[in-house]
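Thread amino acids onto this structure.
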């Protein structure tokens, strides 16, 4: 048989020394190994103490219950690994208890003078077998449990925790190392199987010779001393590789406020980590934003416990599927891999299931409360000054023109009467022709802004030649808005987006003119010019840090007025860095000279560009250098992000509320406006179908974790971002590694993002599956690179080994390590868990493929894996569970017909309920006016402004409303269609996931990504679309399907569910070709297109 006890204990050759060396770190791998080995052996101890006495055959220790008991041991071990890996506190508790048990084991042997009884005697209870009723053991266990409770409630003593982990790990590592020595040395060990380990309960079997046991005992003691000494030196060496100062952000101080008479370090005011007060949201101190970021609410712990618990139950089930008993052909490690793969795949779907259930439960009980907000309908305060950062990297003039058009539209839609909102296109384009085009685009956009506002101003001056005073005391703001709306509507429909802007501008100009019509007109004309000049273009002199570097330099310039580089310098990063004090923005660098241009002409061209662009740098420098006029927020955007009218104002209303000061990022909903694109493809329509047939789980996620992820688009609080991720001259933070891709993962850990569900931004989606593969591969590379920053990352040893081998083969030298200031940043458990959401999703496809191969190939032929059930039934059980957990949440949509109790009014935010809501959907311009103001908390139930939420419309026109029942029925019908399409189209993801993983790993190994960018792929698909072109892009999936089908036919695998995987692989080129086609006009007249677009329009009503 292939399953032998040696397979389990050979792993101790690695685990034992590993724990003896690195247990102090409490890393992911330390907790994982400790959880598995400790819990599996504890289960063995419990089973042996309750009914396995009188064992006659050590090779079959559990007798006729061997199959069930071994499965329980392994299932418990995997479950323990999950819990310990998830929580550092749980991992330390298990490690401490395990270390105490090891000491207790050898103390019993020593007390019996190394001559234990020759039989186990009477059966003992589980507690008695683990403690022996020894007082000192019970006291130590109790102390461990007490420390675990204190850690759970926020009392974190990091140095004490690592010291306890080092001591406990030394004992545990020494004990399991002794077990390896025993199997090699002892005659009993080589003849008898000890799958349950060297325990107190079975000591009469392994401690059979006094001399041997005595040698083992003193070896155990010696190994503990060796381990402690080794860990001391390892810790000392590790400290040398870490930054001298710990990661302690300082509160933001404007450069003009720094006292020159003190040293920098003496004037810093650190952000405090008062975890004890920040455990629960209700006890959070509003000013203690750093402690709030490091806190994990109780709701998150409950949710994570349920996710792990259900995953562990699935682990037990699949453990019982594997045949472990004597005579099996199962290899221990292959069987363990099969169990872990099943549990991992079910983890994400269980998380999705519980999040959906939580969303509906919260909605029905609390009404899905919103974040509180202020009322800025009468204008923004100076503390809300914001710069919109459109980050651009273009190689073609067309892409630059599209970006400037999007930015110009956003600027016009979000104008502020006091010019507190500035729109900046921050470019790192290097081609001279493109840079020139971008500068011309700035001038054209400014001319468009002036032209648009002048057309509106001409009409306003005719209607309101002497301002727009209130005619009567009873005239409300809403009535004045209605009048202004009607006036602007005569100009154009888009002009109605600026009702509030013109209302405030006209009032301010008339008041400032003091009744003089000539001054009134001149003031309005000047305000139009100022609005245009707040649309600016900045060219960055380097590409360091890519997109985050663009808005980091912008943030520093707008907040402090500094245009000199002080982060990511050459003195730390070598040639990857930039010179200290070099200009961040300008045209001195990062502009490529065309081959046909002479150096003199090139210098003249860059000089001309610098002269034209200097006014934009001067504008931000002037505002940023003054602490009273500096910018407080940066709206981070991609080049294609659409910001609808008043979206920035709404985000600022939320950000400025005192109850939201701990949130460093305010996210908006991200959506795609498919109806606005005449060239919408079938792939885009399927994305729209998935969006309308699910609920907005991000809102439920925010309620559970008190934070959400960050996806590169949101309103960033400059104070918190600069102090936690950038730093200041002489005390830089540089929290982002210089070559990072998935920067939003680290930013989300440090800035506690929130979501404002009332605001929706629009972005472009991948137009076809081919470009979507390019996009997702880039995301996967970001996940792999993030893992490699951490020493305990899953990809770290693989990538480091491959990188060294590749460098030796290509350069005949070992690769040089790049300088990374912070490989790990402090964050809450909730933030750490959410940061790996994408990682889990990207590996779900390869995980399902692994399970399928284990079931249909290995288990079917008894190649190192044998199941107690038919192999195909095991895979079918997984598919059934996944589909059930995926389909059932769709049925929960019917719960949206039930009214909410709205208890959230009492404890939190507003009167709005769910994504569908407890009312009717209607046109997006219609206002869902709440019955009361947005509510804050029990201590303050009114908004700070004292006003109710502003209406989101001026003069709503009557529209045919779509009732919630109609929306629900359409959603349920579309859900069925979406499920069918998912079953048919998700199967290729099993192969694509593996390809994505391999390409990302190879790109990280070689240091270069050789796939084409997404926009380039989309242009190629548009130009070369044909079935042959698509086949050349998808042939790998097709060939895998053909090979798998041949195996099924040859081996006579009779399972229709396997065909659900194979057939989509073979048809993948055809399905991809269809997804690349544009939606035909005939389909747009049908119910499938109409229903999807009507529901998406209905969803806009709440934003």
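Threaded sequence (1103 positions):
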């Amino acid at each position: 048989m292939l399953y032998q006890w040696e397979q389990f204990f050979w792993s101790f050759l690695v685990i034992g020394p590993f724990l003896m060396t690195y247990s102090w770190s409490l890393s992911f791998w330390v907790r994982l190994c400790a959880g598995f080995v400790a819990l599996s052996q504890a289960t063995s101890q419990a089973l042996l103490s309750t009914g396995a006495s009188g064992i006659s055959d050590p090779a079959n220790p559990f007798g006729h219950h061997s199959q069930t008991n071994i499965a329980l041991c392994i299932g418990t071990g995997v479950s323990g690994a999950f819990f310990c890996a998830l929580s550092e506190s749980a991992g330390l508790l298990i490690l401490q208890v395990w270390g105490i048990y090891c000491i207790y084991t050898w103390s019993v042997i020593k007390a019996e003078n190394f001559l234990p009884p020759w039989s186990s005697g009477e059966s003992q209870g589980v507690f008695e077998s683990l403690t022996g009723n020894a007082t000192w053991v019970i006291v130590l266990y109790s102390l461990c449990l007490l420390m675990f409770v204190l850690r759970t409630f926020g009392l974190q003593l990091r140095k004490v925790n690592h010291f306890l982990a080092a001591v406990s790990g030394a004992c545990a590592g020494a004990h399991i190392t002794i077990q390896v020595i025993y199997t090699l040395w002892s005659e009993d060990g080589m003849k008898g199987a000890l799958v349950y380990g060297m325990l107190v309960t079975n000591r009469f079997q392994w401690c059979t010779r006094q001399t041997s046991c005595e040698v083992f005992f003193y070896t155990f003691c010696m190994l503990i001393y060796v381990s402690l000494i080794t860990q001391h030196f390892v810790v000392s060496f590790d400290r040398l590789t870490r930054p001298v100062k710990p990661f302690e952000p300082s509160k933001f101080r404007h450069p003009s406020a720094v006292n020159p008479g003190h040293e920098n370090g003496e004037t810093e005011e650190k952000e405090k980590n008062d975890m004890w007060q920040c455990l629960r949201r209700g006890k959070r101190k509003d000013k203690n934003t750093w402690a709030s970021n490091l806190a994990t609410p109780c709701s998150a712990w409950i949710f994570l416990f349920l996710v792990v618990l259900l995953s562990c139950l699935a682990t037990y089930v699949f453990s019982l599927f594997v045949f472990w008993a004597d005579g099996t052909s199962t290899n221990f490690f292959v069987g363990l891999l099969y169990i872990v793969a099943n549990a991992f795949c079910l983890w994400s779907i269980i998380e999705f299931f519980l999040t959906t259930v939580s969303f509906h439960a919260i909605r029905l009980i609390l009404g899905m409360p919103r974040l509180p907000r202020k009322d800025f309908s009468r204008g923004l305060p100076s503390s809300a000054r914001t710069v919109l950062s459109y980050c651009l990297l273009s190689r073609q003039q067309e892409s630059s023109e599209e970006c400037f058009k999007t930015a110009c539209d956003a600027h016009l839609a979000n104008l502020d009467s006091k010019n507190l909102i500035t729109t900046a296109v921050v470019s790192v384009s290097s081609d001279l022709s493109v840079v020139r085009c971008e500068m011309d685009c700035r001038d054209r956009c400014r001319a468009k802004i002036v032209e648009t506002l002048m057309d509106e101003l001409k009409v306003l001056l005719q209607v309101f030649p002497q301002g727009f005073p209130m005619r009567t005391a009873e005239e409300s703001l809403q009535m004045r808005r209605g009048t202004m709306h009607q006036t602007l509507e005569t100009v154009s429909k888009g002009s109605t987006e600026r009702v509030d802007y013109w209302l405030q501008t006209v009032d301010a100009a008339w008041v400032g003119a003091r009744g003089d019509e000539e001054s009134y007109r001149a003031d309005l004309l000047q305000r139009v010019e100022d609005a245009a000049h707040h649309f600016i273009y900045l060219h960055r002199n380097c590409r360091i840090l890519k997109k985050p570097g663009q808005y980091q330099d912008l943030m520093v310039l707008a907040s402090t007025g500094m245009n000199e580089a002080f982060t990511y310098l050459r003195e730390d990063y070598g040639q990857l860095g930039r010179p200290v004090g070099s200009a961040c923005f300008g045209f001195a660098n990062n502009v490529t000279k065309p081959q046909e241009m002479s150096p003199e002409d090139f210098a003249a061209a860059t000089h001309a560009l610098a002269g034209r662009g200097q006014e934009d740098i001067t504008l931000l420098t002037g505002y940023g250098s003054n602490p009273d006029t500096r910018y407080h927020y940066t709206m981070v955007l991609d080049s294609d992000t659409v910001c609808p009218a008043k979206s920035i104002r709404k985000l600022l209303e939320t950000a400025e509320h005192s109850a939201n000061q701990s949130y460093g990022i305010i996210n908006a909903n991200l959506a795609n406006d498919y109806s606005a694109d005449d060239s919408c493809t079938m792939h885009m329509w399927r994305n729209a179908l998935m969006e309308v047939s699910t609920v907005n789980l991000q809102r439920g996620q925010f309620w559970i974790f008190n934070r959400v992820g960050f996806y590169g688009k949101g309103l960033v609080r400059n104070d918190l971002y600069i102090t936690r991720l950038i730093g200041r001259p002489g005390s830089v933070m540089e929290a982002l590694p210089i070559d990072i891709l998935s920067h939003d993962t680290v930013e989300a850990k440090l800035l506690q993002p929130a979501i404002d569900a009332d605001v929706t931004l629009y972005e472009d989606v991948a137009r076809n599956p081919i470009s979507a593969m390019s996009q997702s591969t880039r995301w996967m590379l970001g996940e792999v690179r993030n893992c490699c920053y951490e020493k305990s990352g899953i990809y770290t040893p693989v990538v480091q080994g491959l990188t060294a081998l590749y460098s030796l083969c290509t350069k005949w030298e070992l690769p040089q390590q790049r300088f990374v200031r912070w490989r790990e940043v402090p964050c809450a458990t909730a933030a750490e868990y959410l940061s790996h959401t994408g990682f889990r999703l990207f590996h779900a496809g390869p995980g399902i493929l692994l399970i399928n191969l284990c079931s249909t190939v290995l288990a079917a032929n008894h190649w190192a894996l044998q199941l107690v059930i038919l192999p195909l039934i095991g895979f079918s059980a997984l598919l059934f569970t996944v589909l059930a957990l995926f389909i059932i949440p769709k049925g929960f949509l019917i719960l949206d017909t039930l009214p909410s109790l709205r208890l959230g009014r009492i404890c939190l935010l507003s009167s709005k309920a769910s994504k569908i809501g407890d009312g009717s959907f209607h046109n997006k311009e219609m206002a869902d006016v709440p019955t009361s103001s947005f509510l804050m908390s029990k201590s303050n139930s009114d908004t700070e402004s004292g006003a109710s939420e502003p209406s989101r419309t001026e003069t709503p026109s009557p529209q045919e409303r779509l009732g919630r029942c109609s929306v629900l029925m359409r959603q349920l019908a579309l859900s069925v269609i979406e499920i069918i399409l998912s079953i048919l189209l998700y199967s290729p993801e099993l192969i694509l996931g593996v390809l994505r993983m391999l390409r990302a790993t190879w790109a990280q190994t070689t240091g270069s990504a050789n796939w084409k960018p997404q926009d380039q792929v989309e242009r190629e698909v548009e130009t070369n679309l044909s079935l042959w072109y698509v086949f050349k892009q998808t042939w790998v999936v097709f060939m895998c399907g053909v090979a798998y089908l041949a195996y099924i036919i040859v081996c006579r695998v009779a399972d229709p569910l396997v065909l659900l995987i194979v057939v989509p692989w073979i048809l993948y080129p055809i399905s991809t070709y269809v997804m690349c086609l544009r939606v035909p006009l005939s389909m747009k007249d049908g119910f499938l297109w109409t229903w999807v677009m009507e529901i998406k329009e209905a969803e806009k009503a709440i934003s």
